[in-house]
Write a structure and sequence with these properties.
The protein is mainly β and about 190 residues long. About 5% of the residues lie in helices and about 40% in strands. It has two helices and 15 strands.
């Protein structure tokens, strides 16, 4: 599936604040997200300008992700890594904030990355398969073939691992194109 889906679950507010169902399998199925999620992950970044990615898991433990920002602000990226896709190496981006409540569905076959725009930013995401270190993979955050237009927010903070990942030119994709070009749907 090449559809990256961006949506904001409804919030019910009153003088105390708000309540939201951040995941509802029936609602998400109506959006075209028919995935059995098996694990929830959360990431905290203390500094703005923190970049994580471009990450993915290879088959047989490839993961679809449903991503949201639970505190702060970030820009989330999905990169098409499906061999033979007409949108191979292209990306889409969405600003996710705790305030806007938007979520991004990233299908299997796509790399995932984000940059924090505020300090103390948290990202939460559901995944469709369990983490397996042997299947862990990634591409350089600044890969010239992908050419993500990162915001200019000063110093970028990266892990040692992210500094040593290969570029798209040196990547033999394990993901097959399913006939659906990458397309971001906003609901």
């Amino acid at each position: 599936m090449g559809n990256i889906i961006r949506f904001a679950p409804r919030r019910f507010g009153d003088e105390r604040g708000w309540f939201s169902e951040v995941f509802n399998a029936r609602r998400e199925a109506a959006y075209g997200i028919e995935v059995d999620f098996v694990q929830d992950n959360q990431s905290y970044s203390s500094l703005s300008g923190t970049v994580r990615g471009i990450h993915f898991q290879r088959p047989p433990h490839a993961q679809a992700k449903l991503v949201r920002c639970s505190r702060g602000r970030l820009i989330d990226y999905a990169v098409d890594l499906r061999r033979g896709s007409p949108t191979y190496g292209r990306y889409v981006a969405a600003e996710l904030t705790a305030e806007n409540g938007q979520q991004l569905f990233v299908p299997v076959g796509f790399g995932h990355a984000f940059i924090t725009l505020e300090p103390d930013t948290e990202i939460s995401y559901k995944v469709s398969d369990y983490y397996d270190a042997a299947c862990d993979g990634g591409l350089r955050w600044d890969c010239p073939e992908i050419a993500i237009d990162w915001p200019d927010i000063g110093t970028v903070i990266l892990s040692e691992r992210d500094l040593t990942l290969p570029s798209l030119a040196d990547f033999d994709s394990p993901f097959a194109y399913d006939g659906v070009p990458m397309h971001m749907i906003s609901l």
